[in-house]
């Protein structure tokens, strides 16, 4: 496909409250809107959301919040210039061509030679999504199954009827809202740890935070887990510097009776390359530290037993590769969110729905925290291309997926008018 024209627009969606993790917080989601046109006159629009704090805390700390978003968006603008006038076989080929150049540009524009590759990947999500939709249009494809590369099909053959929504419990979430989340049927909680302070302060705060959550959650039951208990997924986002602090937190979880409920500990260490987690009493998941197949292999060797797949955080093209690599290495794959708006939740869900059931759960696993983070969530759902889709709103803690969902691919092939209307001809 030859790219003849590109357009870019930005839409800013405020959070209901500061989105707190990694010892800091941000206040709004910048959604980038990309339109691609090809030599045949086909066009497609892709959406991608930025996340500076998640993708590189050093860049976030060195800029204003707006400034960090501007730098990340500039990488996409640069990439659009790279592809204009060029021809690509498919989206993975496009990503492979532009990623090294975009990464070099990113290091320059941020003045950070240690820039994390994730900072660049998330900037390219809107472009990658638009490329997949353009690829589908050129090839007469109108379902997600049709765009799954042949080399990833074996790992994405499942059709889950339920995918746990996994709301994020950030350390600014009021306890009455946690009660409401549990009363609504949530059966897996993504608990944000790694609070502000030095290592000692952080661990003590995290222990107290886990205790407060467990005190509320332990009285709730569910039919959607093997044990009947609400389960926990701890996310430290690289704030721990050594095994000792993590061991302390897990020992505390054991003491209060919560350890058996911890199904995942995601990306706890600031420098995962130097820390082997073998022997720690939990299943650890790799997330923002993996960008290549070699990264996945290295984490498996270090004892990691799970892999976070992030179509909306690292591109769908890379997500397909990660699913294949994780499966080959015996790692449990699941999907994680980045404060996504509804259209990006559905891109994520198309992967989560097709992965094997996650151990301990009835069905799949996908962090999705839109209702907790956006005061405008109902408005965004009303603007979705299929606003009455039964799969858009969780029921008893899970997205319920039937044949209508799979036939529509969640609606990702329908034009998102609330975003396309912002583009200029």
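Sequence proposed for the structure above (425 residues):
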């Amino acid at each position: 496909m030859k790219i003849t024209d590109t357009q870019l627009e930005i839409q800013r969606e405020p959070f209901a409250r500061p989105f707190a993790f990694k010892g800091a917080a941000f206040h709004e989601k910048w959604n980038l809107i990309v339109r691609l046109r090809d030599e045949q006159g086909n066009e497609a629009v892709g959406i991608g959301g930025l996340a500076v704090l998640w993708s590189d805390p050093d860049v976030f700390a060195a800029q204003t919040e707006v400034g960090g978003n501007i730098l990340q968006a500039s990488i996409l603008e640069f990439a659009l210039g790279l592809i204009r006038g060029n021809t690509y076989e498919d989206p993975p080929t496009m990503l492979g061509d532009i990623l090294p150049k975009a990464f070099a540009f990113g290091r320059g524009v941020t003045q950070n030679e240690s820039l994390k590759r994730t900072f660049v990947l998330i900037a390219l999500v809107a472009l990658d999504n638009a490329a997949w939709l353009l690829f589908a249009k050129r090839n007469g494809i109108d379902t997600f199954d049709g765009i799954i590369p042949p080399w990833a099909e074996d790992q994405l053959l499942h059709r889950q009827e339920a995918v746990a929504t996994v709301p994020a419990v950030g350390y600014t979430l009021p306890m009455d809202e946690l009660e409401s989340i549990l009363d609504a049927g949530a059966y897996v909680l993504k608990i944000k740890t790694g609070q502000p302070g030095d290592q000692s302060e952080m661990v003590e705060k995290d222990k107290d935070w886990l205790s407060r959550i467990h005190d509320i959650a332990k009285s709730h039951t569910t039919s959607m887990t093997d044990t009947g208990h609400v389960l926990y997924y701890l996310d430290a986002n690289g704030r721990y510097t050594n095994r000792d602090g993590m061991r302390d937190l897990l020992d505390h979880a054991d003491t209060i009776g919560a350890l058996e409920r911890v199904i995942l500990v995601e990306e706890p260490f600031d420098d995962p390359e130097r820390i082997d987690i073998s022997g720690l009493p939990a299943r650890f998941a790799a997330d923002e530290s993996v960008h290549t197949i070699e990264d996945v292999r290295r984490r498996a060797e270090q004892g990691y037993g799970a892999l976070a797949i992030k179509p909306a955080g690292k591109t769908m093209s890379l997500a397909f590769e990660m699913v294949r690599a994780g499966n080959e290495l015996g790692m449990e794959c699941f999907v994680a969110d980045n404060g996504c708006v509804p259209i990006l939740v559905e891109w994520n869900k198309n992967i989560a729905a097709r992965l094997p059931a996650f151990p301990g759960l009835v069905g799949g696993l996908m962090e999705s925290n839109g209702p907790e983070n956006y005061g405008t969530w109902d408005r965004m759902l009303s603007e979705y291309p299929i606003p009455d889709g039964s799969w858009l709103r969780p029921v008893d803690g899970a997205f319920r997926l039937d044949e209508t969902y799979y036939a529509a691919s969640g609606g990702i092939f329908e034009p998102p008018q609330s975003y396309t209307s912002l583009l200029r001809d």
